[in-house]
Amino acid sequence: MENNITILDHPLIKHKISMLRDKNTGTNEFRKLVEEIAMLMGYEALRDLPLEDVEVETPIEKCMTPMLTGRKIAIVPILRAGLGMVEGILSLSPSAKVGHIGLYRDEVTHEPKEYYCKLPSPISERVIIVTDPMLATGGSAVDAINQIKKHGGTSIKFMCIIAAPEGLERLHREHPDVQIFVGQLDRELNDDAYICPGLGDAGDRIFGTK
Ligand code: PRP
Ligand code: URA
Question: Is the overall model pTM greater than 0.70, yes or no?
Fold first, then answer.
């Protein structure tokens, strides 16, 4: 990890992202792939969770063996598309609490508009994983993390499947303390602030809307 940015290089993640990109991948398969990728990325993002030796009695003898300790986890998807990543992370950490931040991009200005925010309380005591498949201009991620910090969140990880260089640079500049995990770094944004080559509109593809 350099500068708190990790671009994942696992071949399973790369392969599944290529399947997501395909315009012929339908809603059902798209949802499953997003969930699987989130699980694989979550495995990496949670690599630094602290462990503590505890005593366990096996059928053979007592031993000291490591178990997770420290802060509990909160998953905070950015609505809508971030919702698609929640189950994948819950499969790794089933007792995590889940908050929600609702944002949509204005079609003309591309600025995020917030319409909902409900976070587990107290959020300050949790490791927070913010999920959104797409980091385009970075406006939505920056706003969501501003909200989380306003509510007291301090230990924050952001996970996206595809990032544009512009958004990654902005998110890291505005929140250098946040650990960012990216499945694939793409080439650029187009004039409509869509990621190229990207995968299109992640929310529409997950929920089958247009
Ligand atoms: C998409 C995506 C991100 C945002 C990324 O959401 O899921 O939240 O755009 O763009 P940005 O980095 O330029 O802010 P969208 O606004 O389309 O809302 P939706 O998920 O409800 O469709
Ligand atoms: N939001 C998306 O869903 N896709 C993009 O390419 C950019 C923003």
Answer: yes
